[in-house]
Design goal:
153 residues; alpha+beta; Alpha-D-Glucose-1,6-Bisphosphate, Chain A, domain 4; 6-stranded antiparallel sheet; 3 helices; globular; START-like_dom_sf; SRPBCC family protein; ASHA1/2-like_C
């Protein structure tokens, strides 16, 4: 685990073909299924925003908004968002975002999925530590979620 306070890094070895892992990442509906966001009828397009209600129990009243940054076919998917934006009365629109990057790498036993979320040092101090802590635990869970999703689909 990186000791940096600015970035969260995770990786997981996925025993699935690259095309299947890629589809789970960049097909908005598939992404929403394992990530826990209702993105039905949406597409991820670089330069555009995707948003949907969170489907994770207890958070259904919240909307996840992602500004799609880059899509490099079967290699990199990146978006920006407001980390741990869970106070429905707060306006996060003026806060800096973090950058979430998924990178696929070939491995002898499948595909190594690298995840980096960076930019926490720019988040307002009042909520920086909690956003980092919650997203750090969240990414642990999301790595298991994509692994389970791929095993079932």
């Amino acid at each position: 685990m990186n000791a940096s306070t600015d970035r969260i890094e995770r990786q997981i070895l996925l025993q699935a073909p690259r095309s299947k892992v890629w589809h789970a990442l960049v097909d908005a509906e598939s992404f929403g299924d394992w990530f826990g966001v209702n993105l039905k009828g949406q597409r991820f397009v670089a330069g555009e925003t995707a948003c949907g209600h969170i489907t994770y129990p207890g958070y259904e009243h919240l909307v996840c908004e992602m500004q799609i940054e880059r899509i490099e076919p079967e290699r990199l998917f990146a978006y920006r968002w407001h980390p741990y934006a869970v106070d429905p009365s707060a306006d996060y629109s003026q806060e800096p975002t973090t950058l979430v990057e998924f990178v696929l790498e070939d491995h002898a036993d499948g595909i190594l999925l690298h995840l980096v979320e960076s930019g926490f040092d720019r988040i307002p101090l009042a909520r920086r530590a909690e956003a980092y802590r919650m997203n750090s635990g969240g990414w642990d869970e999301q790595m298991r979620n994509i692994q389970n999703y791929l095993a079932l689909h």
